[in-house]
Give the backbone structure.
Amino acid sequence: MNRGALAALACAVGAAAAAVSLAAVAQTPPAATPASAAALRYTFSWPIDRPGLQPRGGVTRGAPVTLDRSPSAAWQALQATGLEPAERDRRAILAMAGTYRVSFDFLEVASFAAADPKLAPYQSWATEKVYVDRDEPGFISLVHILEMRMVDAGGTVGEPFVTKHWRQDWRYQPTTIVEYRGRDRWQQRALSAAERSGVWLQTVHQVDESPRYASLGRWQHNPSFSTWLSGETWRPLPRREWSVRDDYQVLIGTNRHTVAPTGWTQEENNLKAALTLDRSLDAARPFVGREYGMARYERLVPGGFAAADRYYEKTRPFWGRVTSAWSSAFARHGTLTLRGPVDKLALFVPLFERAERIENGGDDRAADASQDAVDRIVDAMRAPS
């Protein structure tokens, strides 16, 4: 893949994390074949006396998939009796691993601006595999890898599109948290004993392992589902938003993960907040709107992700060095400000170039993939101090 193709990739996977933006590569569900189906894609939108808005986002079609409607083995393990609370929490996190068809829906349900923008709802679709990258006492890391097959106008299924997506780390009773502060700045903060007692920290990383957002929350369990709800969380704008508007700078909201027998969901309830240049809420106009978001992970029958498996196995050591580089940077500085949005400026391109060479048979021990080389790339992404 040349640099131009990698720049295009930035548009496709730039907003990795929980509010995934796949506008350039997303698939529409195979069932949505009638031309009128788009009008039925939302059960609620703008008030009924206004013309409906067609969703924006993914427009390409994906290859048919087969859903697995049986309760997963991970779900059954989660339902075992006599588990300690932290162990049941741990099993709920592990139950998010697997192969999935994913749908992404975002709708601005309220506008606080004088002129109602009536922005179209966002909708996209993907297939991906979630790997248990690390499973250690008190810590679990899940890595998401996209593997998508497009169907052209003639009905031919293309070769798989594969790339690293986002990562979510879960740590029990953490001592620190890296929080988003707005305008491309993240800051590490120590947690008090009261803050960390009995909670799980979820940290979401972007495609290049740079930070995106983090929050604390508690798991709750019942025989129907297990759910984790975050506290109020600041997060950067995803590509689906910064590509169409510039009247606000941060999303402030909650994030809920719910695990069920045949998959899981991620819900967001976000305020769209305007910041001053010093990263505080704009006193004259702090909020411009509120959005709801839902990502549905529907489990697929096993198999069909050989290309994702290959990419994950070959590039895993390299991405581990990238993760170490970011951790070391926060250990040294405590606060990091990037030169701009990672996806908007395609800052991750040098890292993806190296990962591609490794995937295609390059030496993982080569100089340009070494820890020193990775450290230099990560350091170059920082804004001048």
